[in-house]
Design a protein that fits this description.
Keywords: Signal, Transport
CATH class of the largest domain: Alpha Beta
Protein name: Maltose-binding protein MalE
Helix content: 40-55%
Family: Belongs to the bacterial solute-binding protein 1 family.
Number of domains: 2
GO biological process, one term: maltose transport
Largest sheet: 4 strands, mixed
GO cellular component, one term: ATP-binding cassette (ABC) transporter complex, substrate-binding subunit-containing
Radius of gyration: 22 Å
Structural class: alpha+beta
Distance between the termini: 19 Å
Number of strands: 15
């Protein structure tokens, strides 16, 4: 790809995504229910990443620079220097910092970084952490780094990462490593980062969505709270029954449908299940397909079983507050809801997302922080050793013991003892297999095209207009942007 084209794509990428919508409820493993995603990059995020030379093959010491991801970050600087102050901080907050594999773990980020640091130290590699923020600040700094050819050895991000791969900005995984991942790692961890037969990124502990329900509210509507829903029709019918039983005090609910990435990521799973897509392989919109019309019609039905305006409220927190307060009965969301139900005193059921009449199991990654090696990274070999350590048995056992996300390593997740010990997370692991997708990147003006789609869905939900006609109009407007 020539330099002019890359520059043009990168300028477009600066305007690509607003990720704030998927930050509030995709917490991973840590002492807080919120990921540590600052709205502005810290002073340490100046674009001066790698500071050492040499490669693992040469035997010389190597320091790789890695961008922080909130769920596993413990600070900025040389990793080994961060352990003692972090331990002191956690102890001061009454958090247990002991950990024995196979037992519950509280201080997940600390132990994750200790294991990673130890495994890399064996290969003469040390880690330096940088904080470039999250969401738009992160995308902007990564984009500037690509343009200046001054990037860390490992970058991280969510929905922007597949676009970076498509633009030729990331290094493909070595073939042997890619084969190992395909054979031993859950598809949700790498499939969204596969492009033209190559893998360009890996997520330590990706999320996908499942269906949750408030057993108390469901029972009040005369529905068996222990029986999972298996079809879209049953979901719509049950949601309506709960709304009628609630008489304005509680509602059926269903799925967040706002015109932002929090909405697209969650109901995107319904689109995928029904065989629909947002874009084709060339990044051209596919908004008005019959499958998408059917999915949006389901969303319209579910919208009627929410308080007015809640389903499309751009403030994601408002939507999930209604769930945690027991005001809605059904919810499609990520695996963190297992623990959050317990934290909020809700007795929740969990099952795979119901299928449409002609649909098949599918899902969309959510809360998936993909780690990648840039083309211009200075220590690529060492960086790939870092990614290998992410799916090592020791690290993935730690993920399993956290019981907040399921491990991606099949050896651990498919062991009988894991299913017995962590039944909900095993359900989540099963949902990570098979047809798991990421959100696509459109050929031009990505954020504008997504907004066209989002506005069309809102119009479909909030008016009585013909859904097919609304999506036809959205398709036409989107094509004017992308072609």
């Amino acid at each position: 790809m020539n330099r002019t084209k890359i520059t043009s794509l990168l300028v477009t990428a600066l305007l690509t995504f607003s990720l704030t919508a998927c930050g509030g409820n995709n917490n991973s493993n840590g002492s807080s229910n919120q990921p540590q995603n600052p709205t502005e990059p810290t002073e340490s995020a100046s674009a001066e990443p790698a500071e050492s030379t040499g490669t693992t093959a040469s035997g010389n010491p190597v320091t790789i620079t890695v961008l922080n991801e909130g769920a596993v970050g413990i600070g900025v600087g040389k990793m080994e220097d961060l352990f003692a102050p972090k331990e002191k901080e956690l102890k001061g907050n009454g958090i247990d910092i002991t950990y024995t594999p196979g037992n519950p773990v509280e201080a997940f980020p600390l132990h994750y970084q200790k294991i990673m640091s130890g495994k890399l130290k064996e290969k003469n590699i040390s880690i330096k952490a940088e904080d470039w923020g999250w969401g738009e600040p992160l995308i902007q700094k990564e984009t500037a780094g690509f343009l200046a050819k001054n990037v860390p050895d490992i970058i991280v991000g969510e929905t922007q990462m597949p676009g970076f791969a498509q633009q030729g900005l990331l290094e493909p995984f070595p073939d042997a490593m890619a084969d190992e991942i395909r054979n031993n790692v859950s598809p949700a961890a790498w499939k969204p980062m596969e492009h033209e037969g190559k893998i360009y990124g890996l997520a330590l502990q990706p999320g996908v969505s499942s269906l949750y329900w408030n057993k108390k509210l469901v029972k009040e509507a005369g529905i068996d709270p222990e029986k999972p829903i298996t079809s879209w029709q049953e979901l719509a019918d049950n949601s309506k029954k709960v709304t009628e039983a609630g008489k304005g005090k509680f509602y059926g609910g269903g799925v967040y449908g706002a015109p932002n990435f929090g909405g697209y990521l969650r109901y995107g799973a319904l689109v995928a299940i029904n065989g629909g897509t947002f874009a084709d392989a060339n990044g051209q919109p596919t908004f008005n397909s019959d499958a998408n019309v059917e999915t949006v019609n389901l969303l319209r039905e579910l919208n009627a079983d929410h308080p007015a305006g809640l389903m499309v409220n751009n403030n994601e927190g408002t939507y999930f507050d209604a769930w945690t307060k027991g005001q809605t009965a059904y919810l499609i969301d990520g695996p963190w809801q297992v623990q959050q139900c317990k934290d909020n005193g809700l007795d929740c059921g969990m099952s795979p997302i119901p299928l449409s009449p002609s649909g098949e199991a599918a899902n969309v990654t959510i809360g998936a922080a993909f780690n990648s090696v840039p083309k211009d990274a200075k220590n690529k070999e060492a960086a790939f050793e870092y990614i290998k350590a992410m799916y090592s048995k020791e690290v993935q056992q730690l993920v399993a013991d956290s019981n907040v996300r399921s491990p991606i390593l099949k050896e651990i997740a498919e062991a009988p003892e894991y299913k017995e010990k962590h039944p909900e997370m095993y359900l989540h692991y099963q949902a990570m297999s098979g047809n798991v997708q990421g959100l696509p990147t459109f050929a031009k003006d990505n954020s504008k095209v997504w907004q066209i789609w989002g506005d069309a869905v809102v119009k479909s939900l909030m008016t009585k207009g013909d859904v097919k006609a609304i999506l036809d109009d959205a398709q036409k407007r989107a094509e004017q942007v992308t072609k």
